Every structure is written in structure tokens, then in C-alpha cells.
Amino acid sequence: MIRVKVILPGEIPSRSHLALFCFKDARRPAGDVSFGAAVERDLKNAKKYGFTGETGQTIAVPSSSRRFERVLFIGLGPQKEADLQTIRIGAAAAVRAARAARFPSLVFQFPTVDSADRAAQAAAEGLHLGSYRFTAYKSKKDDTKPLQSVSILSTDKKRAVEDRNGVVRGTVYAESVLLARDLINTPPSDLTPEHFVRLAKKEAGGGVQVRVFDEKKIEAMRMGGLLGVNRGSAKPPYFLHFLYKPKGRAGRKVGLCGKGITFDSGGLSLKPPKAMETMKMDMSGAATVLAVFKALKTIKPPVEVHGFTPLTENMPGGNATKPGDILTARNGKTIEVLNTDAEGRLVLADALSYASEQKLDEIVDIATLTGACLVALGDDITAVMGTDRALLRKIKDASAKTGEKVWELPLEKGYESHIKSTVADMKNLGKPMQAGTIIGGIFLKEFVKKGTAWAHLDIAGTAWTDSGNSLSPAGATGSFVRTLLEYIVEN
Ligand code: BES
Ligand code: ZN
Ligand code: ZN
């Protein structure tokens, strides 16, 4: 990761490369430290080359001041619309442009929106998220000189303290997001359930425990959903129970369940080749849970947090579960499996049943559950459903702070009949082409103890980006790691 420092105006090294944020059509760069007439001249110069301050626009010009080497202008869009996400996107654009221009280091300031520490946090997040690349499997190492350090310019000593706090928080959040991205981007034959367990164990310590349930234990726990999905795979399943216990009294107890299908072939209801290409990402929910625990060790919030990750491949081996088979989940409910590709809800059925036994105040599950979610909300909006208004409010508030968009779908009572089975308590499918994402939520609700506040996040659209977005290159995004952290830490 890039080194990030907070410095005062007197500490700018001479001949630095400078990045300056500009709102649309502004005459001066944004931020509280003024660099005077020279920089305004540079901006005029940049405008000659077509720079307007539109979101995401970047241009580097030689500085007319002897203090600086080159000045990189970054467009932030209209000032009226500026929020923390504007800063994240701007910072991400700045590091990418700086790297492309081969700057070894960079000095920048950001405009204040929200509070100073939150703005600094957003800047640090943008820097780290925007500069991420997954290079573990490239044989040729990239020859572009890495951008090694970024100095964030603060106005005075008091403000620098707030900025530093924000940078620390933003770096911890981003580190976790990048860990999730690495896990999700790793090829599915390398990132197996067993390997996931090894990586999870590395996060134990510092207040975090990881309990590992192997196949024998999973059988003893009667997790029929997880076992049923695993039957077609040559590799054994695992179930992890993470626990973070704060020192002193915990304010509340929260549970996170993450879908951990390390590869989703569809099973016997085999996916077509195109649909299978990205299915190494079907453990994004579990990766999110692991990544959250990594950050909890450092942030140490006064909340007890439990994490549950059912881990298996979904494969069509000779012993695979067949359409028509009936599985019994941990809570005793029976499920007729009519499509083995609707496997996420089967493994989460057990995870939610088990979580419901742990006397938690709130349970949130996170899963790449339905292709229908991508159809409904696209790859930039996560779907949320739930049984508790207060919990849904907390998640929406957290999402507004992190800039990870979320939209609520209704758990429509009238659709509960869609998953009725003639031979079992329920089936794992609704009606063809109807409300697929909602049906996923309605199915999961059956496995949450009545009275426990519960929310379901469908990240099928947001966990992955085919073309890259403002904060992520193509591939895994690490979606909702930051929002779940924010939800845990701020409530
Ligand atoms: N892992 C998929 C959902 C998915 C699809 C995630 C595309 C990300 C991108 C899930 O297991 C699945 O295949 N769901 C089925 C459910 C259907 C059979 C009811 C789907 O969406 O088609
Ligand atoms: Zn599937
Ligand atoms: Zn799946």
C-alpha cells in the first residue's frame, strides 16, 4: 500500500509534484491552503487544454512556480453536489493519474466536506482503493514506477491531528477492502474452502477467535444445506465461526453471515459457460466477513461481533444433489431442491439457523445470491431486505457515509406462497422470472429466529465489476466491507 503522511504547508518538500482538486468551472483549486497566483496561472493553462473540472477529469501541467515540479488537476464536478464520495473518487483519480505520469510521490489537499476527520478518511480510502491492482499471477512485473508516498496537506497543527485520525481509520478500512478483493480475485482452484480456512486462521488473535468446523463437525451439527451443496464437490466443506469480543462490557451483539461458495458451477443445474466465468466471486460474502474481522482487531469497537461463513464449492460431481432431492437444514426445516444453482440460500439456511442460536441482537447476512439483483439494480447498488426498521435504518445510514449505495426491496408477504413445495416445507425456487431477489430474501427469513432483527444484503451486482469503476479496477470490488464496518462501529 502507498504510504500516506499528513504534513503542514511549511513541510512541503521542494520540487514536489502537486495534485489539486477543482470543482467544475472554478477559478481556484479547492482546499484551504492557497498557492497563490502561480497555481492559478497553471489552472488557466490546464483549461486551455480542455480541463473544465468535470468529475474524473485529470490533466498534468508543468508548474510555473519554482516550488513545484508538475501540477496535476483533478476535476470534482459541481461544488453543490460535493460529498465524501466526491473526495474518495477524486483521490482515486489522483493516484491513478500520478502513477500514469510516473510521479514517485504526490502532495495534495482536499476540500472539507462533512467533518475534517471524515474527509481525511475518505481521501485515504480513495488513495488505497484507487491504486489497487491484483498482480499476484502476472509473470512480468509491471515496469511503471510505483507511486510510493502521498502527503496530505493540512492547514494547521490542530487540523492535522484530525486529519491523521481520519487517515488511520481510512487506511484500516481500505486494508480490509483490499484483503477481500485479493481473496475474491484469487483463482477458484487456489482459493478453496480449505485455503480460506487457512487465511481466516491468520486473522485470529487481538480479540478475534476463529472456530473451525470440519465435515465431521458439520454433519454432527446437522447442517444439511451445506452438506447437500457440497456433495458434488471433490473438496470438503468447512464452517467458520469468528468471534470478536471487546474488552469490558459489549454494548450489543451482532452476527454477520457470509455466503462462501468458492466456485459456483451451478451444480447439476449447470450454468452456461459465460455465466460461470466470474463465479470464483461467489465467496464474496464470506470474504467480506473475514475482512471485517481483520479491521475489528485494530478498531476495537465496544460491540461483540460473531461471523459465520459456510464454505464449499458447488460442483456437479457424481454424488451431487439432484433436482428433486430434499435437504433438512439445521433448524429442522426441509427444502426441496429444484435447481441446484440456487445453492447460496441452502448454505445460508444453516448459517442463519446457527446464528439464531447465539442470542444475538442483530443478524446481517451478505451474499452474491441472485443474478436477478444485477438485473434489478445493476452493478453499483446493493439490495437490502429485512425484518427490522431500526436495523435497516442503521445500514442505510452507514451506506450514506461510505458511498456504497443500497436500495431496499420489500419482503412481500404475498410472495411467500411462491416457495411452497408439495413434498417438503419449502422449495428453493420461486416463480420463473418473478422477483428473484425478493424470493431469495423470503427464503432466508425462514431460518432466522422470530424476534431477532435481521437484514439481508444481496451483493450479486456490486461484488464484481467487469469494466472497473471509479474506486476499483476490473474484478472484485470488496463491496460492503466498509459499510458493515461503519454499521458496527458507529451504532
Ligand atoms: N451465485 C449465483 C448468483 C449470481 C449470479 C451472482 C450472477 C453474481 C452474478 C447464485 O447462486 C445463482 O446462481 N442464483 C440463481 C438462482 C435461481 C436459480 C433461482 C440465479 O440467479 O440464476
Ligand atoms: Zn448458483
Ligand atoms: Zn451462487
In short:
This protein is of the alpha/beta class. It is 35% helix and 21% strand.
What does this structure look like?
There is one protein chain. By secondary structure, this protein is an alpha/beta fold. Helix content is 35%, strand content 21%. The protein is built from 14 helices and 20 strands. The chain has helices spanning 36-48, 84-100, 116-130, 157-185, 193-202, 215-220, 224-230, 273-276, 284-299, 344-356, 371-377, 389-402, 436-445, 481-490, and strands at 3-7, 16-22, 58-62, 68-75, 105-108, 149-153, 208-213, 238-244, 253-258, 260-264, 304-314, 326-328, 334-336, 362-367, 382-386, 406-408, 426-427, 453-458, 464-465, 475-476. Strands 7, 8, 9, 10, 11, 14, 15, 16 and 18 form a nine-stranded mixed sheet that branches. Strands 1-6-5-2-4-3 form a six-stranded mixed sheet, sandwiched between helices. It has a three-stranded mixed sheet with strand order 12-13-17. β5 (105-108), α3 (116-130) and β6 form a beta-alpha-beta unit. α3 (116-130) packs parallel to α4 (157-185) and α12 packs across α14 (481-490). It is elongated and about 80 Å long. The chain starts with a strand and ends with a helix. Residues 261, 264, 282, 343-344 line the site of one zinc ion.
Topology:
Blueprint: E1 3-7, E2 16-22, H1 36-48, E3 58-62, E4 68-75, H2 84-100, E5 105-108, H3 116-130, E6 149-153, H4 157-185, H5 193-202, E7 208-213, H6 215-220, H7 224-230, E8 238-244, E9 253-258, E10 260-264, H8 273-276, H9 284-299, E11 304-314, E12 326-328, E13 334-336, H10 344-356, E14 362-367, H11 371-377, E15 382-386, H12 389-402, E16 406-408, E17 426-427, H13 436-445, E18 453-458, E19 464-465, E20 475-476, H14 481-490
